[in-house]
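Appendix B. One record, verbatim.
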Amino acid sequence: MQAPGSSLTAMRAETPLVHNITNFVAMNVMANVLLAIGASPAMVHARQEAAEFAALAHALTVNIGTADPDWGAAMSDAAAVMVEAGRPWVFDPVGVAATRFRQDLSAGLLDLKPSVVRGNASEILTLAGLGGAARGVDAGDSVDAAEEAARALASRTGGVVAVSGPVDFVTDGTRAARVANGHPMMARITVMGCSLNGVIAAFCAGQPRFDATVAALAAFGIAGEVAGRTAQGPGSFQVAFLDALYHLTPEALDAAARIERLA
């Protein structure tokens, strides 16, 4: 497995343009997160330009949190461009269990073979057809309960699946790892997971996708740990988190990453 610090170095050298079709709640925070860690964000969701813009990007993220039919079509158009170009795209099936619309949209996006699927345990279980105890957009299942579903889903898509939680689980259907970095305050900030999608996409641009995903999760979690040392609450945590991403060095990432490699 590639050292996570070298993944951070490579990402910053590339300064990848990450095209994000994400939800209304996430846009500002996600853009600032990507800028802080060293990538270049763009929020483009109109169907009339999504595919054209995707052709310019190094990576794409798709998040169905506030999707509608037009956004759904734009997501599919942009993802198809990335697949054709051999560039990475990350899919976040927010609240997939909540409505039939989300399930149908997610099924179509999965057919486009996302490079990385990142979701909570309930979302991954739902995508894999194994149920799940979601509460709206929140997980009602543990990461451990979704590990086999993640392996099955990765084998189906041919990509990487990341299950977010107190300890993240990542697999490409053959290899797997757990990443234990993070801070409890991260769960008190909306769109942290949405913002993580962009960081994963940035790391995956031009890099091996399993290793890049693991490195992105570790970097994101370490920034949370650093922010948590000084934050007085959710408000100050957000500011400290952006600063921690900005100041994160490859050496600090390698030293603080808590990654368990699995069979």
